[in-house]
UniProtKB/TrEMBL annotation:
Signal peptide span: none
Matching Pfam families: ABC_tran (PF00005)
Residues of the ABC transporter domain: 2-231
InterPro entries found in the cross-reference section: AAA+_ATPase, ABC_transporter-like_ATP-bd, BCAA_Transport_ATP-bd_LivF, P-loop_NTPase
Gene Ontology biological process terms, A to Z: L-amino acid transport
PROSITE patterns in UniProt: ABC_TRANSPORTER_2
Keywords recorded for this protein, A-Z: Amino-acid transport, ATP-binding, Nucleotide-binding, Transport
Molecular function as annotated in GO: ATP binding; ATP hydrolysis activity; branched-chain amino acid transmembrane transporter activity
Organism the protein comes from: Pseudooceanicola lipolyticus
UniProt-recorded name of the protein: ABC transporter ATP-binding protein
Gene3D superfamilies associated with the record: P-loop containing nucleotide triphosphate hydrolases
Protein's UniProt keywords contain Cell inner membrane: no
Sequence similarity: Belongs to the ABC transporter superfamily.
């Protein structure tokens, strides 16, 4: 279980998250929904140790990880695909994947398994990341995170700016990882995309929990989403 226990975090003295709590179970997709500036990306960074907590704790199976440096968080099996991808653009596809393997000491067997999910990347192993299309870069960012064999996977706006075929490819991989028992925390602005994959949805506003609901309830009553997001 990935657990955020009443965490507060921010930038400098500006507090963005206020006692935010949520849990992600293995084999579950929990989506964060909220307006721009609600604190979704800040939540991801706080989990990954990229922002120090002002209060609260992040735990994996009861073990506190929020006191660890960011590279140690990855060693605990937390994969992160940030908004904007953050690839090593001058390096090749193969070299970017190698960095993913190094993060947790996994081997080429893991890489081969990841490439089964992304056959297009196998054809481009010697190609520099900056020459890939936007969709291929998103595939590479996802594949690199999967190279650590994550127990939990954090995805921040993975479909932003992608064409429909690429969106579907990413969606299929997310569902495969859920079926393999990976817990997934997903930030996504496209409501229809959220409802197509989520098991539960957590609404946040101004860095605070509003409500967490089963996705099935939202599919049956779209007015709930409109109430929280104004869409």
């Amino acid at each position: 279980m990935l657990e955020l226990d009443a965490i507060s975090a921010g930038y400098g003295r500006a507090r963005i998250l206020h006692d935010l709590s949520l849990q992600v179970a293995p084999g579950e997709i929990l989506c964060l929904l909220g307006r721009n500036g609600a604190g979704k990306t800040t939540t991801m960074k706080a989990v990954m140790g990229l922002l120090p907590l002002m209060a609260g704790a992040v735990r994996v199976d009861g073990q506190v990880i929020s006191t660890l440096p960011a590279h140690r968080v990855a060693e605990c099996g937390i994969g992160y695909i940030p908004q904007g991808r953050r690839l090593f653009t001058e390096l090749t596809v193969a070299q970017n994947l190698e960095i993913g393997l190094m993060a947790r000491g996994t081997d080429r067997r893991v890489r081969d398994g990841v490439l089964e999910l992304f056959p297009r990347l196998r054809e481009r192993l010697d190609q520099r990341a900056q020459t890939l299309s936007g969709g291929e870069q998103q595939m590479l960012a996802t594949a690199r995170a999967l190279c650590i064999e994550p127990r939990f996977l954090l995805l921040d706006e993975p479909t932003e700016g992608l064409q429909p075929s690429m969106i579907e490819a990413i969606r299929e991989v997310v569902l495969v990882m859920r079926d393999r028992g990976v817990g997934i925390l997903l930030v996504e602005q496209r409501v229809e995309a959220v409802l197509s994959v989520a098991d539960r949805v957590c609404f946040i506003e101004n860095g605070r929990n509003l409500e967490t609901l089963e996705a099935g309830a939202l599919r049956q009553d779209p007015a709930i989403v409109a109430r929280y997001l104004g869409v």
